[in-house]
Design a protein that fits this description.
Elements: E1 4-5, H1 8-30, E2 35-41, H2 45-60, E3 64-70, H3 76-88, E4 94-97, H4 107-113, H5 125-132, H6 141-152, E5 161-165, H7 172-181, E6 185-189, H8 196-201, E7 205-208, E8 226-229, H9 242-245, E9 251-252, H10 259-277
Parallel strand pairs: 1-9, 2-3, 2-4, 5-6, 5-7, 7-8, 8-9
Helix pairs in contact: 1-10, 3-4, 6-7, 6-10
Length: 281
């Protein structure tokens, strides 16, 4: 079996086309553009690259983008003050704190300071709780992008056994909640899990989000499994050994060009939604 490709670039472009049209209508109605404000602490090269990509994506769909660059040595209290200012700024539709942040920053406290109405990256505890309970909220961008990719390719989720590798608060955990919301049976594996090949061999859907290059081997997979690779390491390497897994899977995401473009597309969609929700009713 040779797996078919889950093309994140193509799927993301479809979403971005819709966002662009809706953003144009928003501007016609309000004479303003949705504004995404990003906070970048320090000069972490990958983070700087991601921020440039997000700026370019905003510009391509007609949104405004504001970057606030903060020094590497900033303290949590100072960062919270910056977030407070953005929360109070009526012009700002969405707030994005680019992560990771330097080790002296309490990242969770910073995420939780973002107003739930502007948490377009879906990172705060309150947003996670609302999402987990099926309440109206922004969904974490990468997990939602993975769900949407499955749906766009009409891959069944309900009743399927999904195994997630990784339990991070912005990827593995929210993805598990979204999959539960789609009526999948979910197993979350992590650094303390035993016999990883056994778990993966039971999976109809595998979502790799652990940050270990080429961890997932083809021989571990169930024949015909759907494989989503949310990992990225230097050299365009994901958490999945693409060569061996593509021979066993039915569908698989490439790296790059799979999950990544979907993440940005969902961020744009969330920012537009936040802007629309802020209008007087």
């Amino acid at each position: 079996m040779n797996a078919q490709i889950l093309d994140g670039r193509f799927s993301a472009e479809k979403i971005r086309e819709g966002v662009k049209k809706s953003t144009s209508k928003f501007f016609e109605k309000t004479h303003q553009r949705p504004l995404l404000s990003a906070l970048l602490v320090g000069t972490h090269p990958p983070s700087m690259t991601y921020v440039r990509m997000k700026r370019r994506a905003c510009e391509e769909v007609g949104m405004d983008f504001r970057l606030i660059e903060l020094p590497e040595h900033i303290k949590t209290k100072e960062l919270l003050g910056e977030i407070d200012s953005l929360n109070q700024d009526e012009r700002v539709s969405g707030i994005l704190l680019q992560h990771p942040v330097p080790k002296q920053i309490d990242e969770r406290e910073a995420f939780d300071r973002i107003s739930v109405s502007k948490d377009v990256d879906g990172v705060s505890s309150l947003t996670f709780g609302r999402m987990s309970l099926g309440m109206p909220s922004f969904h974490s961008c990468t997990p939602e992008g993975m769900i949407r990719l499955l749906k766009l390719y009409q891959i069944p989720i309900e009743g399927k056994h999904a195994v997630i590798l990784g339990r991070s608060p912005i990827l593995g955990r929210p993805l598990s909640m979204l999959l539960l919301g789609e009526n999948a049976t979910v197993t979350v594996c992590h650094s303390r899990s035993l016999d990883l090949p056994h778990h993966l061999n039971q999976a109809d859907i595998v979502a790799a989000a652990c940050g270990i290059p080429k961890l997932v081997k083809g021989e571990w997979l169930k024949e015909g499994a759907v494989v989503l690779d949310a990992g990225y390491s230097q050299g365009n390497v994901g958490d999945v050994d693409f060569e061996s897994c593509s021979k066993k899977a039915s569908w698989i995401t490439p790296v790059p060009g799979g999950v990544g473009p979907m993440t940005i597309a969902i961020l744009l969609e969330n920012t537009l939604q936040a802007a629309c929700s802020s209008l007087p009713r």
